[in-house]
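Changelog-adjacent note: as of this version, every example in the card shows the full chain rather than a window. The one below runs 330 residues end to end.
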Amino acid sequence: MNDEIVKMKRAKMYVDYLISGVDPIDNENIDSETFQNQRVIACFKYISEVLERDIYNMENKTSRSHIEFFISDEQIRELKPTSFSRKISDIADDINKVTATNGTKKMSGARINDWLEDQGYLCKSDLKSRMATDAGKSIGIISERAQRATGEEYYANRYTTEAQEFIIQHLKEIAVFRKEKTSADENNITLLDYPHGCSVKYFIEQHSDKCIITSIGSCDAFAENGSYISLLLYKGKSKVLNKTGIKTSSANKCILAGIYDAVSMIKSPTDVIILTSTPLGFQTHKSVNRDLCEDIVEVLIKKGCSISTAVCNGKASELNAYVKSFLNQV
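Full-length structure tokens:
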């Protein structure tokens, strides 16, 4: 493994320990008030998320242009509706101007309209284009018949000041709204887009009709001693598995061990989503963890389950906290 990646993973492990108020050297609780300060903790969380992203990018050589669209609350406040009606592409251009430094995918007018249609503000027309519904008209979307250069008629939509304000107010929801896409993996594993900026809790709530399995793991690479906490959520019920003393130098192998034990507890066919903070190799044929991933897939196929995976990049600390919150319920 690249020496730089090893150093980054070590640094991230130390930071994650400190976030939890634990000394990474002797595993003792830290009593210092400094490490209980919320601003200090927030700083450590930010460092951890940056390291998580950089580790992922270095391991996968992922271009920043592949990172899902994200907009901060501060950037949303920079957006102001105009006093005149505009096309959806113009609105998207303004959004992309304030998010240009984020290094993510751009927001498109089609994506905004997809969300508006999903929410009932737009609908398909008999002219093979979208037009405002009564709900859309009530928020300020104006649909007018127009004609292309070819003579083909369509509905041209204009967005008034009120409609622009509505879109700005709901940008977070629009950013989260993504359609599922299917991979071509021979095991028919569906890869779900995890929207950048979406909280772990919200993502899980949005897929509450599925069986969610997630796992977190850690290890001392030098002592080859690891552990995992895995969580199985289904129909409002939860099951937590916790194992220590795993002989490995890989935290990912600990995570996969937790996922394997969790899927082994499934009793009947169901739709399963495996949620992790980093890619583990389910759709990478040359992954060092491919055998473990195939074992998990084999168990699920034998149980008649459909399989989906989702990766919440940059959300490792949040996922860790979410999983650990269920320990107190055991």
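Structural remarks: The first helix runs from residue 3 to 19.
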